[in-house]
Specification:
The complex is a heterodimer of chains A (330) and B (236). Chain A has one domain. Chain A is 73% helix and 1% strand. Chain A is built from 16 helices and two strands. Chain B is of the alpha/beta class and 236 residues long. Chain B folds into two domains: 162 residues, P-loop containing nucleotide triphosphate hydrolases (Rossmann fold, 3-Layer(aba) Sandwich), CATH 3.40.50; 67 residues, no CATH class. Chain B is 38% helix and 25% strand. Chain B is built from nine helices and ten strands. Classes of the chains: A mainly alpha (330), B alpha/beta (236).
Chain lengths: 330, 236
């Protein structure tokens, strides 16, 4: 964060990264990927967005969350209900659902006093509370039977977001937008202070940083993003039930993706989620149809042991060995 | 400038500070002295807000007792830690900039450059992450970081510890320079009697959480209670 760099929160490199993401992301469309493959890629991008929201809290806020399923689930239900019961247009319901997930995160504020495993356990319990609420409030959520009849993604200016290509472009755009938001925050003084808080909270507070406030902002933003991706996912798949919307998968997979890709970088959680999900669904499932997750575990363990900084760190190392510049802060 | 009135801290059954009452005048360099476990760092923690205390802590006429730590820093109380706690992954300049933006509420690169210059850290400003600095440089960064918050009261916790005698002497001169240049009031925790005698206009001695002497260094170090606290005979 030199002075010049900090004054330009979105540097040329960040925009190049965003452009690169868009280009790489559009390759499957250019290559004529099948609807099945696009469906898998959409799911992987949903996880990528969720991974970004997790990393925002874990990397910048220093808070390891095992409960992002709560925000994802709340966002899913909020958007579906807003659209189905109040007739809110879906593209408006999605950010509103992010807002509802943000509100739900306020209940977690007392947990910000906790750190490390205590915070992780508290937020894990919190996710369970919301799953139970969604099951029990059947008058609103349909209970365990779930919700089936709510609007899907709309057609805007002739572009059908409900169709696979349209959904893919929308989710990809959302991931790129969230990555840019992450970059801007990371490069700001708030982001730098947050990373310092993760190292030594007291040392940061004695220079005037209100660590509780900054961590609250990160929790709220993280919940907002997770809620929006939950909402997007709900309108794409067209059904919801508590065990699905609040499934532990939504807490665990973003962590696996972020760790695999390199949670300290911005790009790591995105590529990590896409690579690990596609590996699981395309390769591991074809090799071991039942219990394919075991391969996922082996690959993740290998990555953690051989490249603790994930894919992003590995690529950086390869670049530095081949004479390229090693950008530790990709 | 700083007024402590009946400051008391308990950690469970342990009375870490008992009814500490004294004032620090503007422009003073006050030495806070005492054997290990006397409560010096705990008192710093109370003043800076890391530890909640009973009693009253006043700063420039305002009651700080219930203010959170970051608000006290923004009010003009800067502090260092005995073991330097830089923001490790940031460069020296970034450490100072974060401290200035949040502590002083403004961004002034010229002021940062001045602090870097005075603390002889200019050559390291953008070179490496703070984690790569040597001990003496880390101690200078610790002070520089506190200065970046633009404090009027600076609490220095054993900044001279671990330095060899020449380094200690030059560091002492540096502290005098900072005192004059930035118009600071300084409270320094230090074990070395010679350092306190040379640097401070006044010394306060703590032992087992109690204030046992307050006066000029010469008066304090000739006080039998202080001598006993250092030789250990009083509580042996």
């Amino acid at each position: 964060m030199s002075d010049t760099a900090s004054s330009r929160l979105l540097s040329g490199r960040s925009l190049a990264m965003a452009g690169g993401l868009v280009v790489v992301g559009l390759l499957p469309l250019a290559a004529g990927a099948s609807p099945y493959m696009l469906g898998l890629l959409i799911s992987s991008l949903i996880l990528a967005g969720l991974g970004l929201s997790w990393a925002l809290l874990g990397n910048l806020g220093g808070m390891v969350s095992f409960g992002h399923a709560a925000f994802f689930g709340v966002g899913s239900y909020a958007s579906a209900l807003l659209a189905a019961k109040l007739g809110v247009p879906v593209l408006l319901a999605i950010p509103l659902a992010g807002g509802v997930a943000t509100l739900s995160s306020l209940a977690m504020l007392p947990a910000l006093r906790l750190s490390g495993p205590y915070f992780a356990l508290a937020i894990l319990a919190y996710a369970q509370i919301f799953r139970i609420l969604a099951t029990e409030a059947s008058w609103l959520t349909g209970g365990a039977a779930g919700l089936q009849r709510f609007p899907g993604l709309p057609t805007v200016f002739g572009f059908n977001f409900a169709e696979r290509h349209g959904s893919y472009v929308l989710v990809l755009g959302m991931v790129v937008l969230c990555a840019l938001i992450y970059v801007v925050i990371r490069r700001s003084y708030v982001g730098i202070a947050l990373r310092a808080i993760a190292e030594s909270e007291d040392a940061t507070r004695v220079v005037g940083v209100n660590s509780t406030l900054l961590k609250t902002w990160m929790l709220m933003l993280s919940a907002f993003i997770a809620g929006m991706f939950g909402a997007l996912n709900a309108h794409i798949i067209g059904f919801l039930e508590p065990d699905y919307a609040f499934s532990g998968i939504w807490s665990v997979m973003p962590i696996i993706g972020a760790v695999f890709g390199g949670y300290r970088s911005v790009i790591g959680p995105v590529f990590g989620a896409v690579v690990i999900y596609m590996f699981d669904q395309v390769i591991a499932k074809s090799l071991i149809p039942v219990g394919h997750q075991i391969l996922l575990g082996i690959v993740l363990a290998g990555m953690v042991l051989l490249a603790p900084n994930g894919l992003a760190g590995l690529v950086g190392r390869i670049f530095s060995r081949t004479g390229g510049k090693h950008h530790a802060r990709a | 400038m700083l007024a402590l009135d009946g400051v008391t801290v308990r950690f469970g059954g342990l009375l870490a500070l008992s009814n500490i009452t004294f004032t620090v005048e503007k422009g003073e360099i006050l030495g806070l002295v005492g054997p290990n476990g006397a409560g010096k760092t705990t008192l710093f923690n109370c003043i800076s807000g890391l530890v909640r205390a009973r009693g009253r802590i006043g700063f420039e006429g305002k009651d700080m007792t219930r203010l959170p730590l970051h608000r006290r820093a923004r009010s003009g109380i800067g502090r260092t830690f005995q073991i330097p706690q830089p923001m490790h992954h940031l460069t020296v300049r970034e450490n100072l900039t974060v401290a200035q933006v949040f502590g002083a509420g403004r961004k002034d690169p010229a002021r940062i450059a001045e602090i870097l210059d005075v603390m002889e850290l200019s050559h390291k400003a953008d070179a490496d992450a703070a984690s790569a600095l040597a001990l003496q440089e880390l101690k200078r960064l610790e002070i520089a970081k506190a200065l970046a918050t633009e404090p009027r009261l600076l609490l220095l916790d054993e900044v001279l510890a671990g330095l060899e005698s020449n380094a200690k002497r030059s560091f002492m001169l540096k502290l005098r320079e900072l005192h004059a240049l930035f118009g600071l009031t300084i409270v320094i925790v230090e074990h070395d009697i010679e350092t306190i005698s040379n640097l401070c206009t006044r010394a306060v001695v703590l032992n087992f959480g109690q204030l046992i002497a307050d006066g000029t260094p010469a008066e304090v170090f000739s006080n039998p209670a202080v001598v006993e606290s250092y030789t250990g005979t009083a509580h042996a």
